[in-house]
Amino acid sequence: MTTASETAAQHRLGMLLVAASAAVFGLAGILTKSVDADPLTITSWRGLVGGMLISAYVLWRRRNGTGESLHLGWQGWLLAVLGTISSVAFIAAFKNTYVANVVVIYATVPFVVALFAWVIAGEVFRRQTAVAATVCLAGVAIMFWSGLGGGHAFGDALALMMTCLFAFYAALVRRFRNASVVWAGAVSAFLGVIPAWLLSDPLTVPRSSIAPLVFFGFTFALAVILWTEGARRIPAAEAGLLGTTEVPFGIFFAWLFLAELPPTASLFGGAIVLGAVFWHAWRDARSADRFATGGKFRRETS
After folding, report:
1. In angstroms, rounded to a whole number, what is the distance separating the alpha carbons of residues 228 and 210?
2. What is the number of other CB atoms lying within 10 angstroms of the CB of residue 177?
3. Is the Cα dihedral 100, 106, 111, 115 positive or negative?
4. End-to-end Cα separation, the chain, in angstroms
């Protein structure tokens, strides 16, 4: 029987792992922009290295009796293909607009997922989600308006397309409850190698870019593994709240390593989006805490 102290320790470990995953995911923007290669080539290297590491992780979990099936079926293959397309759009978006714009637009994923889940699975579209989604839409519109004047509208559009594709992917994961999601992610990473070999030559990258590309694949796999292990130990609401910290991490890293600061309109629109996202995540976490404590919040006495 698991003791209360062991449960608390697992909960703390889960929070740490998810937060670390968000920080590692936040490196994607600066790694993409620091490599002198086209999006397909970057996706190819990231997918090859990341796919191998994720596959090793899946096989390790299967050996320990906690892994998932390696049989994808049509559902798993659909997830893999969607994941590949969204990955290419993700990398291309970073190449064509500010890192802050990409990560902030991507932060609207939970609301787009809720919309797709309502359409696909008939899940209830909650009032707080509708309010937060409307506010996010206003913030994204301001960012697009800023991009029209600064030549970044194409990159913003790619970020929005990637967000919609990933949201559709996440909604299907909810619907395909028996799908091997992590293994589909590994296969998706490998599929990202194909377009690069058909349309370009990934081996023509400068030698100076090979190490960053390999490191990019490593961070991708590490972020996936950290998230998978962490999310297993804490409630979904808490995982979602901690996952949103990827946004400030991404913006901070872009400022620290690239000295990249988007225009004022983008910052204003991004602040609106982040406010809505954090408010929604905080409401979810509070609701989960209320449920866990039998409808009453814990009160600390001084």
Report:
1. 27
2. 8
3. positive
4. 33
